[in-house]
Amino acid sequence: MTSPQELQVAGPLTLSAATAADLMTPNPVPIDQNATVKEAVVFLTDRGISAAPVIDESGRPVGVVSLADIVIHHRHKVEFVPAVPAYSEKTDLATSSGEPRPGGSQVGSTDQARVRDIMTPVVFSVSSEAPARRIVGDILGLKVHRVFVVDAGGVLVGVVSAFDVLRHLR
To answer: pLDDT at position 77, please?
Structure first.
């Protein structure tokens, strides 16, 4: 692995993109605001992404759900059913499939939270013609990892992440 001292830059870095359309990853896959948190975990991890736009019934973006939102939710929401007292009969203990459950084990409660309950309810968006320099300024100034690109009707057409910006540095 290269240490920071070994990295050499030939000169100043320049952004090889002029607009949001040049920077963006097109057609980001949204998640429905009524999806469960568990569905959001599967959605994000299966796609190898750290966040997704959240859409309402009309398909308009209403927020963003990220892995950080899920971690924060779980940190505050994980609850367990108390262990069964020792005086209970083991025959009283069974899983949903009827198998005996060992005494003293805990069962996680079912999380009924929806994406709309944990998402960041703000969508930072720009038009596809927005200057790339402005997008970099927005990402830094707003302290966000991504901005979404929408068309004139407010329909989601792309996303510009910090990684997208880095890919266009030369």
So the answer is: 72
